[in-house]
Design a protein that fits this description.
The longest helix is centred in the C-terminal third of the chain and has 18 residues. The protein starts with 10 loop residues before the first strand and ends with a helix. The chain is built from 10 helices and 12 strands. α8 links the parallel β9 and β10. With 323 residues, it is α/β, with parallel strands linked by helices.
């Protein structure tokens, strides 16, 4: 794809939840590389922390004022950001959502993301098959993302429960009351320190844990450190989602049993290409009618494969983190 006319004057944006999570760091690298390749100017923004909707609103306002042609957004609040996204679209900007779909998903022009429900389902299926008959009585702790439950949060959580064989009462919400097997849940802000604190809180009420579901690998690492400090790490299955290089290393080391690998570089590159193509041709990306969702894939990474659940090992996963 060639660079658009007056490319140097073409501004596009990237807004991520934070600039510290390795996933978003890699996403930014992918966007910068593709923007440079196509000769456009990338302006990158990030929230102060996961959940900083006000920060993302301010970033969108800045991009509108700067005359940007479009932007990529990883929403911290899938619903609260929608009115600002609508304002940007009415101003003529193309809005591409990455990683975390809006609610409703068609509030954006297109979404490039992992099928987060499927990613959760994969680790749930793996955990269930690994435990065998013990899965029916296994005590589960969930290390979730944020109190406002953005779409990525409930999709991964409910995908995991579905894969594990636990019925979900509300697909757009998660609650400890979904099952008596869930003995503790807490939010982590998707960070290692948050995961550690959440697991410490859970262990005070439920000292015996068999399975830990974590929203991402930093949260999983923090949860594991709390389990280990309490002498509770032996025999606990820890599963997560992201497939970053540190997370794959944790799989190899036996800290995380399995993770679903995502591809943030691909998400970002596809997003930049879509905006540049829109600038050149006026055409918006088209996929599933009414949704325009583009699945960038998820691969189960584990060194302990189980029948019926397709996976690759940590050696192969390390070659792919993060594509």
């Amino acid at each position: 794809m060639g660079a658009p006319a007056h490319a140097a004057d073409t501004i596009i944006g990237l807004i991520t939840k934070t600039n510290t999570n390795p996933f978003f760091v890699k996403m930014k690298e992918g966007a910068e590389k593709k923007a440079k390749e196509l000769g456009v100017t990338l302006q990158a923004y990030a929230g102060k922390a996961d959940g900083d909707n006000d920060g993302e609103v301010a970033a969108i306002e800045e991009l509108i004022a700067a005359g940007a042609k479009g932007f990529m957004l990883v929403p911290s609040d899938s619903s609260a950001i929608v009115p600002t996204v609508e304002k940007a679209r009415k101003a003529g900007l193309l809005v591409i959502v990455l990683d975390t779909p809006l609610d409703p998903i068609n509030a954006a022009d297109a979404t490039f993301a992992t099928d987060n429900f499927k990613a959760g389902e994969l680790i749930g299926q793996w955990a269930k098959a690994t435990l065998g008959d013990k899965a029916k009585t296994a005590k589960i702790a969930t290390l979730d993302l944020a109190p406002n439950e953005p779409s990525v949060d409930y999709l991964r959580h409910n995908g995991f429960l579905t894969g594990f064989g636990i019925p979900v009462k509300n697909q757009k919400h998660y609650a400890q009351s979904d099952s008596a097997q869930i003995v503790g849940s807490d939010v982590t802000a998707g960070a290692e320190e948050g995961g550690r604190k959440a697991m410490e809180n859970i262990l005070q009420k439920a000292p015996d844990i068999d399975v830990v579901y974590a929203i991402n690998e930093p949260a999983a690492a923090g949860g594991y450190s709390a389990l280990k400090a309490a002498g509770k790490d032996k025999g606990v299955l820890v599963v997560a989602i992201d497939g970053g290089c540190p997370g794959v290393k944790s799989v190899k080391e036996g800290i995380i049993g399995a993770t679903s690998q995502q591809y943030p570089l691909l998400m970002a590159a596809k997003g930049v290409e879509a905006i540049v193509d829109f600038v050149k041709t006026g055409k918006k990306p088209v996929s599933t009618p009414g949704l325009d969702f583009f699945d960038t894939g998820a691969t189960l990474i584990t060194d302990h494969p189980v029948p019926g659940v397709k996976s690759i090992d940590s050696t192969e996963g390390a070659k792919l983190c993060w594509g």
